[in-house]
Amino acid sequence: MTRARIVSLLLALLGIQLTWFIAPAYACGCGAMVPDPAARIAVSDERSVLRWDGRREDIVMRLTVDGDAHHAAWIMPVPHRATVRLGDPAVFGQLAHAMAPVHRTRYHFWPHDGEWPFDGHDEVGDAAPPPAAGAVSVVGRQRLGPFDVARLTATDPAALGDWLHAHGFALPARLRTALRPYVDRHWEYVAVRLAPDTSGATLHGALDPLHLTFAADRPVYPMRLSRLARLPQSLGLYVLAAHRMETRTAIGGPPPEVVFAGRLGTHDGALGELVSGTPYLTAFTQRFPDPRRISGDHELRRAAADTPVQQVIYDDELRRIAGIPAWLLTTAGGLLVGVAAVAAVVVRRSRRPVPPPPPVQPPPPLSPSAPVG
User: Fold this and answer.
1) Whole-angstrom Cα distance, residue 281 to residue 242?
2) Among residues 364, 35, 24, which one has the least CA distance to residue 194?
3) Which of 62, 246, 318, 369 is the 20 to 30 A CA-CA neighbour of 32?
4) pTM of the model
5) Coil, helix or strand for 72?
6) What's the angle, vertex CA 299, arms to CA 297 and CA 301, rounded to 5?
7) Alpha-carbon dihedral 245, 251, 252, 253, rounded to 10 degrees
């Protein structure tokens, strides 16, 4: 292969890698994230609180984004007409404090690596009526901080896409197909256009949370649009209800992990408003290594029992007696006992009387010799 061909091949591979790098992330765990053309944005963390009191559902969402986009649009389907307002970011800190792991001390007898005499080793840490066919109706539009929020109804994904495009909400063509199941079920849509407060700034870091409220016969967290994501997705979902809740299925990922379950006491502020009437918190985490396998939305139901779950962090400590490692006292004591036992045996043997030797008997006298003839 000539040098020119090798250089051409390397440039082509580099171009492919750059194309992958700037490719926008079209989806997050709760809807569709659509940046400016040729811009890059990725949702690095998603935290949502879902509150359901049997008739009404509240979702408070906070996204942490990385990238270089100056503007982006976010679209979320909802089963019934929703009201939207800014959420209080303090609720996530209050939840983290409420479900903080408990610390318990776990004692061990023998020293571990890092404890004397092994401390010389390095440790490695670690519902509204359906609209007319083909129409897009604007239920409402409002400005909430850095968010331009439009609440829409539609029965045709193409018509919805045309409206979004005409009003500054860019919509990739493949997202129209993904919206078809929601259109068929007459869901509505919350379209949010995000822009930084400072002119020329890029979307980066934790965004202000949004608080959605809508009627719900059963709790649901929309996830279907996340199948359009090109990178692995992760979800952290706090569910507040009267009892412990569980997901009906894993919707194409590993089963969600329950990291906390239990009743919360009285709280002030944002969390107090959410906990009122729905005191039981169930916290899930789930990761989707292959978002294309996401098969639907997370539907939740009451668990068989209100079994509490709380993470426990064990603090390992060496057992001591009066500040001295117990193993050292035990080992030293055992050695002392052994030495004392040996010494006692030696002393006992040294004091034992020695019997006198038996008397020496003189040899018998020689008999006289017989005469010689």
Assistant:
1) 9
2) 35
3) 246
4) 0.70
5) strand
6) 170
7) -20
pLDDT at 54: 94
At 223, list the tokens. 């996830």
The answer to whether the beta carbons of residues 124 and 112 sit under 8 Å apart is no
Separation between Cα atoms, residue 83 and residue 190, nearest integer Å: 9
**Residue ranges of the chain with pLDDT lower than 50?**
4-27, 29, 120-134
H/E run at residue 263: strand 257-263
Closest CA to 219 of 246, 195, 192, 199: 246
Question: Beta-carbon neighbour count of residue 234 at 10 Å?
Answer: 17
CA-CA-CA-CA dihedral for 161, 142, 207, 66, to nearest 10: 30
User: In the numeric block, which tokens belong to residue 216?
Assistant: 């719900």
Residue with tokens 């109804």: 153
The angle that helices 173-184 and 157-166 make with each other, rounded to 10 degrees, is: 130
- In angstroms, the CA 288 to CA 227 distance is 9
pLDDT given for residue 262 in this prediction: 95
pLDDT of residue 311: 79
DSSP H helix total and E strand total for the chain: 6, 22
Q: What is the pLDDT at residue 246?
A: 97
**Peptide linkage before 117 cis (omega within 30 of 0):** yes
pLDDT of residue 39: 58
Is residue 340 within a helix (H) or strand (E), and if so which, with residue range?
helix 326-351
Amino acid at 33: M
pLDDT of residue 70: 64
DSSP, residue by residue, 1-54: --HHHHHHHHHHHHHHHHHHHH----EETTEEEEE-TT--EEEEEEEEEEEE-S
Residue found by looking up tokens 């490692």 in the block: 325
| Cα–Cα distance for residue pair 74/34, rounded to 1 Å | 6
Rounded Cα distance, 110 and 113, in Å: 10
* Spatial distance between the Cα atoms of 36 and 169, rounded to a whole number of angstroms: 9
Three-state secondary structure string covering 129-182: CCCCCCCEEEEEEEEECCEEEEEEEECCHHHHHHHHHHCCCCCCHHHHHHHHHH
